[in-house]
Amino acid sequence: MPASAERLNRASAVSILVALGIFSLLSLPFVEYLTDDTFIFLRYARHLAQGLGLAFNPGEPTYGFTSVLWVWLLSPAFKLGISPIGWAKGLAFLLALGAILGFGAWARKRLSPSAAAAAMVAFAVNGWLVRWTAAAMETALVLALITWGLWRTQVEAEEPGRRPLAALIFAVGVLARPEVALLLVLTIGSDVLRGWITRAVAAAVLAGIVLGPWLGYAHATFGHVLPDTAAAKGRLALSGLDLDPLRDIVKALAATSGAELGLMAVGAGTLALRKRGAPARTPASPGAASTSDQSLRLADAIPLLWLIGLPLAYVLAGFDVLSRYVLLLTPVVVLYGFLALQWLVGSSGGVGRAALLGLVGLVLAQNAWLLARVVYPHTHAFSRGVEDCLGGLGRYCAEHTPPGSQVAIADIGAFGYYADRPVLDLAGLVSPAMLPIVNQHPIADIARDLLYAEVARPDYLVDRAPEPERLAGSPGGVFEPLTWCRVEGLGVRAPEPIAYTLYRVHWDRWSGAAAIP
Predict the structure, then answer these.
(1) 284 pLDDT exceeds 50?
(2) N or C: lower Cβ tally within 10 Å for the chain?
(3) The whole model's pTM is what?
C-alpha cells in the first residue's frame, strides 16, 4: 500500500474513533432518559413475545406504533428474560454508531477526506441524535438505514453494474418508519430517469418482496397500511395548508445544524449567480471521472428531494412535527453544508483546513450548549416523571384495581406497561375509535365531559390537568379521586408542570350531561 494511502486510511480511522467517542461521551448524561412512547413500543413487544400479536390491549390488534421493525427487534428481550429497557437502550446505541459510520461512508463518497472526517464529527455531535438515541426509540434504527442507503445510492451511481441494494435498504427502512417510502420511490425513479429500466424493475421487485408480506398483513389485520399514529398526529387531508410544521422543522434543524443550513443557502445563492455549467473548485465526487455528470446529478437529487419532500409531506398532512422527525433530514443538511463549504473555500491548504476546524468547533459548541442548557434539564426531570408518576400510577392500578379493569388515559405508555390493564387511549393512538372525537375536542374536554361514553365506559380515568383533582367536585360525584402525581413538563415546548389524577368513574351517577359546567 502506498504511504499516502496508508496515511489516508489512518486518518480516516482516527476520525471514526473521534466521532464515535464524542457521541458516546455526550450520551452519558442521558443514560436514564426515557419517554412515554418508549413504553408503548415495549408493551407491544411484550405482547408479541407472549404470542398475543401486535396489540397494545390483548385481543385488540391495533396499528398504534410507528415502527413495526422496532417492535420486532425489542421483542427478543422478553423471550430471553433480560431487561427490556436495557436491551432497547443498548440496541439504539449500537444502531446510532452504525448511523454515524454510514454517514461517514457516504461523506467519503461526496467530500474530500478532510471534509468527510469533519462532517462525520459534526453529525455525531448532533443534539437530537444524542437525545433520541438515549430515549430508545426507533430513530437510530431509521437513521442507520437512511445513511447506509444514501451511501449505496452514490455507489450505484458511480458503478451502474452494482445490484440495486439501495432500494432494498430503503424498503427495510419503510418498516422502520413509513416516511422512508419517499426515499424508496426516489431511488427507483432515478433509475428510470437514467434509462436503467431493468434495474428499476429489479429494485421494485426487491422492495415488494420485503414490504409485500407486511403490507398484506397490516391491511388484513388493521384494515389499512398506515399507522394509526399518522391519523392521530396529522389531519391527512389537503383542506388547507398550515405552515406551522415548516416553521418547526426549520427551528429544529437550526437548533443543531444552523451553520450547515446557512452554508447551504450561501452555496445555493453563489451557484445561482455563477454562469450555468461553470466547473466547481473541487470534484463533486471521487468517482466523478468514472461516471456521467447526469448520473451524479441524479444521485444528488435523491437526498436533496428528500430534504424538500419530507417537510412538504409534513405540511400537507398537518403534522405536529417533533425534533425526532426532523432528525431524519439531518444527514443531508450536514453533508451538503460541508459540501458547500468545500466548494466555496476548498478543503486543503491553510484556509480550507481552518474553515473546516472552525465549522466543526461551532457545531460542537452549539450542540453542547443545546444539550446542557435545554435538553438535559428537561429530559432529566421528565424521565423521573415518566417512571415515578405515570409508571407509579400504573403500578398503583396493578395493585389496587381488579384484573381486566379498563382505564381511560391520554399518555398510555409507562402507565400501560406497568399497570398491565386494558386502556382506552384518549389520544387515539391505540384506540382508533376515539380519533373522530380527538379531532374535534381537546383531550381535557374529552376527559371532563366523558365524551368517550359512546366508545367505551372504562372503570377508571387518569386526567391530565395543570392542577390535581380538578374533577373532584363533579355533579353527582361521578369522579372519585384516588391518587395523583405531578410531572415537571411534557416536553421542551411544554415545560409547565402537569398533574395526573386517577379517578374511579361511577357511571351509575352520570346523567349524560357535561360533568362540569
Answers:
(1) no
(2) C
(3) 0.91
